Amino acid sequence: xxxxxxxxxxxxxxxxxxMRCYQCGKCTAGCVLAxxxxxxxxxxxxxxxxxxxxxxxxxxHSNSIWLCLNCENCxxxxxxxxxxxxxxxxxxxxxxxxxxxxxxxxxxxxxxxxFLDSIKHTGRLYEVGLIAAFKSRTFRFAQDLNIxxxxxLKGKLHLLPEKIKDRRHMKRIFAQTIENAKxxxx
Amino acid sequence: MSKIGVFICHCGENISATVDVERVAREVGGxxxxxxxxxxxxxxxxxGQTFIKEAVKKYNLDGVVxxxxxxxxxxxxxxxxxxxxxxxxxLCEMANLREHCSWVHEKSEETTEKAIDLVKMLVQKVKKNxxxxxxxxxxxxxxxxxxxxxxxxxxxxxxxxxxxKVILVERDPSIGGHxxxxxxxxxxxxxxxxxxxxxxVEVAQHPNIKLYTYAELxxxxxxxxxxxxxxxxxxxxxxxxxxxxxxxCIQKCPVKKIPSEFNAGLGTRTAIYVPFPQAVxxxxxxxxxxxxxxxxxxxxICEKTCQVGSIQWDRxxxxxxxxxxxxxxxxxxxxxxxxxxxEYGYGKYKDVLTGLQFERMASASGPTFGEIRRPSxxxxxxxxxxxxxxxxxxxxxGIPYCSKICCMYTAKHAMLYQHKVHDGxxxxxxxxxxxxxxxxxxxxRRAIEExxxxxxxxxxxxxxEKDGKLIVKGVDTLLGGQQVEIEADMVVLATAGVAxxxxxxxxxxxxxxxxxxxxxxxxxxxxxxxxxxTAGIFLAxxxxxxxxxxETVGMASGAAVKVAALFSNDELVREPLVAVVNRLAPxxxxxxxxxxxxxxxxxxxxxxxxxxxxxxxxxxxxIAKVNEGLCQGCGTCVAFCRSKSIDIQGxxxxxxxxxxxxxxxx
Amino acid sequence: xxxxxxxxxxxxxxxxxxxxxxxxxxxxxxxxxxELKDWNCCGATAAHSMNEExxxxxxxxxxxxxEEQGLKEIVVPCAACYNRLKVxxxxxxxxxxxxRVAEILQMPYKGDLKIINVLQLLEAYGTENIKARITQPFAxxxxxxxxxxxxxxxxxxxxxxxxxxxxxxxxIQVIGGTTMDWxxxxxxxxxxxxxxxxDLVVKLSGNILKDASDRGAEALxxxxxxxxxxxxxxxxxxxxxxxxxIDIPVIYITQAIGLALGIxxxxxxxxxxxxxxxx
Lengths: 186, 666, 279
Description:
The complex is a heterotrimer of chains A (186), B (666) and C (279). Chain B is 28% helix and 24% strand. Chain B has 18 helices and 34 strands. A five-stranded parallel β-sheet of chain B has the order 10-7-6-18-29. Chain B has a five-stranded parallel β-sheet with strand order 20-27-21-22-23. In chain B, strands 2-1-3-4 form a four-stranded parallel β-sheet, sandwiched between helices. Chain C starts with a strand and ends in a 19-residue tail after the last helix. Chains in contact: A-B, A-C, B-C.
């Protein structure tokens, strides 16, 4: 089995054994976004089981891995207890490092990056900064123009970021992890 | 000096492909005390056995070692051959060169050397072997059958028809088991009760069968051919010797809302009840948990109604003792229900049923007289969904196995539904269709092609209720994982078959093994499917694993034949590979000090106390004695004995040392 | 009763009312919440989608801080933070991962911090205690919405059951409310796609609201800021996709309990909702 699946390090990184899947489809049946995905979860498991580079690339290029919300309905119901959400996390990072992201991933990655930038600099989420960064990344300047003022009025937005004291610690954590990974893979 | 004969088998190529068998024979042939050593293609064949017999006579051998397969396979064969040549069979030993060597190693020098070692060890052992005589024990020719479903009924009738007495014990008030609850049976669609009830009556009327209903096994002691069973006859509160079974008490009983076990909870019964109209015996029992009199001390309406005065309020449980020679376990199975399927809403939504409940509904004797109607509102469902593998093949729920019968009964259910509701739509969600069996695949095809049952390959994620409909969220994996949503009126779960409740405790009472799912374990998965590891106790039906009616009946008849074979002897011959406590000349009599650690260690209660008395009858000492009938030769007592007074015949300390030393001396 | 408190980012910003109601209810029930000092963001979906080590290090810092500050137990009201902390604690039972994270953080980490969600806090405090302080029974028929992160993955969280959980329903019944059997108790609202894929959030949250509304719920009760904001702040967009708009409010369990304990609407942050709360 291992010989065949050397196309990815999925199992050694996540402990997910794709051969355990017997294609019952319960994950897909209960997936809230299966109909929006290129390949629903059970189909994706089957692609992985073939162990071919071609099918692995199909997955990395698909929108499925980006649309997965990690709601874990699939894992909760899987008779074989296969950790599909964890697998999705892994496949997303592979997709980025191999630069195979589906166009649908753009706003999602942009959001994640903006989110993480905020944490890196302040230690906490700065929502105004997040939205501003997201908009500049995606050019969606018109989005949520109706919501933001309302949020402000309801006292849900700080205009200035909350900052933690030990921001150097944050920078170190980022440098050691996500920034480290970027330099490694590129 | 010893004169040992060594016979090395090629086992076709099974051994010779990896082991240099000629070299093994040659090298062992040079050992001290080996008078003759050969190799041959099939030692177990007729010519092979002839080689052994002739050599025993020609060389006047006093020991034989056969290097071949597992002794489990052919030890009896070779020992018989030796016995026919006049050698005590227990002077023949086998070295397992197949499972222990050729099958588990690659071809190499070392593999051959290991084979040589294995044979040499047995040569050293056999030099220390002593002739042993088989043990003879008498046989009580009466069988105990536990469980009165189709397995127990069939086994009882088959044994009884060989002329032997049978005691049939059933936990419920009637025999019949699950089969009596079924509607029609696959693949012929004949009515289950129509074919079963005549057999039930036959049991009741058979002169060789004594039937105890509403009874449970309390304990079983003894050994093959000589068991003592204590059976608890639960208080029925009705005197069956006078009760006429008129049923007047049942009609008058005011407690009417008890969920009927027979109808799988879909109907109700009274506190004094007969489980179903065709019950055997057709006489009522009082369910004391629900009876007003036992609950509150008042009511007694049944007593007033009974014309013959059969109600016995003060009747207590009774224990009867029966001597039997063999036991057939036929305790059947159970279905998963209750809170086991939260995602399918079983137990929450009335119109989500188990397969067994659907059987009751489809049965002419059921709560709806065979009409398919929603339990919630009595409406005939126009859309029905069957979910296969509900619980089965689901390691996350603790049931990794296939329940085997569900594919077939689900096809039958869908078919029955289509026959009863002509404008209805039925959908079966399945993962695989397992229809192995005579006319089974054809039956499923008929459901799909002729009865237009919609088969969708995929598992259902969940079922929820909305506006009186059951929304089934499934998937069609053959369409690349397309989601399928059905607004159903009724959902039927093909629930996993599980071991009967209490099977674990029963197994412990009987000293039989059971598997991780509490099904009773057969002695060998292929060659001893109806035997247990405890001699004299046999298995029939779904208590061993889920199985359908024909298979159950076949197994029950198989168990009956085993019992009949046992009863064809007046005495039983057992292998003498049992523990013995040494006996020495006076004044020691035995090295046993009478600490009886062995007694506490023995799992088979085989250790007895023996008083050694002088000529004048005075007690000299009390030592342990092994009951040869009970002892299974497990050796636990040997390990526990601190004075090394116990040995297993055929595996004495001396013999085992000789084996080990042969390895070390090399 | 004294217990550590990790609010998480949402509770300081877009879900301030959750924070306010947690604090108010804790005060009313005499639970002493000790806020973790210098806490950071848990990383949420963004971190575990983008980098595993980062997704473990951020929650690990929070837990290490709690240990450093002598806290044995912390309550984490945000379901997403609760989930990230619990999952990280579980992942760090693996020694190589724990070593790597210790190296990144350069902080000691024992991994024995007890992490509980707000429902567990209220359960632990005792339903009898709550009952004794009710001044205004919460006499409403509501749908308890648990979402994903509070109950899954069960193997790690070991909280309530995955299908048809009951702990929130039980609390609502304690304060005099009526709960219902409905179909979307644990179905995803769209979670972190609020900004990036609002279209999907509208679809998923719309399904949830529609089912609750069809069954006559007067309100949805939640214990997750992401669920609340998707169901509340995105209501305008959701209603555009529906035939008839849905105006049932989405309130936190702590707000419902606060109402029953007689705490004012303003103190509970009920004025901060987009959908007007009139309960």
